[in-house]
Each structure stands twice: as C-alpha cells, then as structure tokens.
Design brief:
Blueprint lengths: L2 E2 L15 E2 L3 E5 L2 H12 L17 H12 L6 E7 L9 E12 L4 E9 L23 H15 L10 E7 L3 H9 L3 E11 L25 E10 L3 H12 L3
Parallel strand pairs: 6-7
Antiparallel strand pairs: 1-2, 2-3, 3-4, 4-5, 5-6, 7-9, 8-9
Helix pairs in contact: 1-2, 3-5
C-alpha cells in the first residue's frame, strides 16, 4: 500500500488528497511556489512535449501560473501532484521529475480519471521529453511513470482507510497517442472504446484529421478541431486481482 501523510492541503478538490510514496517515488500535492519553476524549466525548450495535450507549452512561470490558477486551482474535479524521485528509500524530499493529476473526479459516482501525466528521468540526464504520455525511447521504461500511475491507482481504488475505495478509475488519451495507450495497457487498464469527436481542442492542437473549417460556428464561437479519445478503466470488482499485476509492474527496474 502507498505510504501517505495524513495532512490534506487546502483545495476545493472533491476527494481527499495527500502525500503518497513508496520506496522510489513521492507524489506531492502540487504547489506553485515549489514546483512551477522546475516544471517550466524542464519543458519550455521542447514544445513537442505538449503535442497531444490541450494545454501548453509554457515559456515562463507566470504563464504557467495563469493556466494553473484559472483551470486547476479552483476546480473541484481536477488536482495535480508533483512526481519526486527518491535517491534512496530514506529520502523524504526527492527530485522533481514530472507531474501527474486526477481529473473528472465525481464524488457522486465514486469515480476519477488519471491524467495530466508529464514525466522525466532524474535530472542527471541532460535531456528529456514527455507528453500525455510520450517519453523518449531511452526513458520509456524507467520506474517513474509506472510508479506514479500505480500509486494513484492504489490510492483511488484500495479500500478505506488506506485508499479512497472508489468504483472506477479511468484513463483517457488522444486516440493517436500510442505511447499513452501502451502505458494504460501495461498498467492493467481495460480498453473500453474510442469515443469519436469526444472533445474540441484548441486551434493549435492535434485533432482527428476531420476538416472543420467549413463548419459553422457553434453559439458564435470559432471552435478548434475535434479529438477522438481512447478510453480505458479499472473497476472496483476487478481491482483486488488486477492490483497484483500493477504492483509487479511497479517493482520492475
């Protein structure tokens, strides 16, 4: 089970959140003052990191803070964690290696989605690249992604008091993002479907290839391209058995 700190930060997020950790990783509730600068410094030189995301890239901390304060901080359905890699099992600080989040949270439906996954290898490496979820081939099999996703799966699906005891934990990604789909499969998520035209993305982002330029504006708005989304999920009735496979993936080095 993931170790945790019982203190809960001030946030409107509808589910309890706290610090989670295992032998090699810490998930720390995101703090602009502590984590925004390393986030921007680690991503601003490679805009392709955000190829499949609906947000970014960010060239300054102020630009990122504007996004975070308008979209994440006031939301009761979205929250971020900083991913901190431990140098050893006793390390309680860790080194910033990326961001992961929970989104589309519903207390009424006991469900949540893992998203906003951006990760990197430890900073001894000179260069990294990631997107939800795309990591350079040399780093795709590091422990960071599997342990970050695994910690959130354990926390959201394990029964009380160690976890939240939710009934569904979802993974949703751009249908063309093969790297993200592979992660979902590796972490034991069940593939459900591809939802066509599931969402509209900003004008500068990748859609599903359908030309919408000749379509009329909706409610007077100039809309961007549409995205198809691949949907995966874990379920409470399967979790006790599937948890064993998730833990096995987390323990690989």
């Amino acid at each position: 089970m993931p170790a945790s700190n019982p203190s809960t930060p001030e946030t409107p997020f509808c589910l309890p959140i706290r610090r989670l950790q295992n032998a090699c990783l810490i998930l720390e509730p995101f703090s602009l003052s502590a984590h925004a600068e390393p986030y921007v410094l680690g991503t601003k030189h490679d805009p392709s990191i955000f190829h499949y995301t609906s947000y970014g890239p960010f060239s300054t901390v102020a630009e990122y803070a504007a996004f975070y304060n308008s979209r994440i901080a006031p939301s009761d359905a979205e929250t971020f964690f900083a991913i901190l890699a431990k140098s050893n099992t006793a390390d309680e600080k860790g080194v910033f290696t990326g961001v992961i989040g929970l989104q589309n949270a519903s207390l009424a439906n006991a469900s949540v989605e893992i998203g906003y996954v951006l990760s990197s290898p430890p900073p001894a490496t000179s260069y990294w690249k990631a997107s939800v979820i795309t990591i350079l081939p040399a780093f795709q099999r590091t422990f960071v992604t599997s342990n970050a996703v695994g910690l959130l799966l354990q926390y959201t699906l394990d029964p009380l008091p160690d976890g939240l005891g939710l009934r569904r934990c979802q993974w949703q990604t751009h249908a063309e993002n093969e790297a993200s789909r592979r992660v979902a499969t590796r972490m034991g998520f069940t593939f459900e479907c591809v939802q066509r035209f599931q969402r509209i993305v900003p004008l500068n982002k990748v859609g599903n290839g359908f030309d919408t330029s000749g379509m009329p504006d909706v409610l007077g708005r100039n809309l961007g391209p549409s995205r198809d989304s691949a949907v995966f999920a874990h379920y409470c009735d399967e979790w006790p058995e599937k948890r064993k496979g998730v833990v096995a993936v987390m323990e690989r080095r």
